[in-house]
What we know:
By secondary structure, this protein is mostly helical. It has 15 helices and 4 strands. The protein has one domain (4-358). Helices cover 61% and strands 4% of the residues. The longest helix is centred in the middle third of the chain and has 29 residues, at 197-225.
Amino acid sequence: MTTSVSFKQNKDLEFKKVLKNRVNDYFSQTGLSKHYNAAMIVKTIVMLSLYILPFILILTVAMPFWIVMIIYFIMGVGIAGVGMSVMHDGNHFGYSGNHRINRLMGLTMNLLGADAYNWKIKHNKLHHVFTNIYGKDEDINSRVILRFAYGAPLKKYHRYQHLYAWFFYAMMTFSMIFGDITKRMNYRKKGITNISPSAYRRSMAWLIVSKILYFGVFIAVPILLTQLLWWQVLVGFVIMNLTAGTILSLIFQMSHVVEGPEQMKPDEKGNIEIDDTLIVHQLKTTSDFSRDNKILSWYVGGLNFQIEHHLFPKVCHVHYPAISKIVEKTTAEFGLPFHEFDGFWDAFTSHYRILKRLGVQKT
């Protein structure tokens, strides 16, 4: 079934105008750019170093196997950091006002083994427009044996998903690394990509080459240049990706699949008429968490300020803590929702409860 979604166009225009003006005034009064600053450059260097320097250490210094595995774990932390703090802003065109810089930062996704083009379709084109709409937002569509939406079919085994979901969360990066080619083909088949046939062939060629280079560098090179055995390299590779997958999955899930944010599903004809503008829809389907935790906010690239990100995706995340105060104040004035969890644990336990609920409830 093809899902058709329509939003209201001439509603809450005053809220949109006031919020936009207040955020613009903030940048005008402070003299700050909406894009990167010195702190963002430092963060970019730190995150990339956390991923690349440990790998160089593995290639150049002979170490006990258990130490190497710890280093692979650190690389996994770096992968998640690059994805959340560098790639994410680049592919949203929020890192810089310069398109080439954004493209370069966005392509760090390929450095991590996944694909920037696929990610932009899945995240920018589907998730950010159709947030928490079953059938459109791939982030809440059923995957393998996980049920994230009340609109998805309920199976008997779902009653245990709050126990086994964590294993599949850890597999997140593997699903992208090994599923990108098929996903690109499916997007083309569904008509989601609108590039010419020649451009599509070039993009597929680049995707295949990037995969070959990734596996060549991160698997073949350590086997050939170090004393590590092939199976030891594979174990390290698995540890690295399980670490990254767990971190990334949890951070993204705790902003949408939690108590508070709404979900929408199509009617029997596959249509959804949403009685809100897109901007209010984002407020109703998104949640912040741990806004006062500066260390967490720094590492996760401001993704705990998910409301602000959905409202201003082209603003660099280093500005979200300040913008969040403006958004919270303005939503309160207009009587609009502002979902928030005070701490990480609050959001985590809420997600756990939702997983249990989705495992037994049809609606």
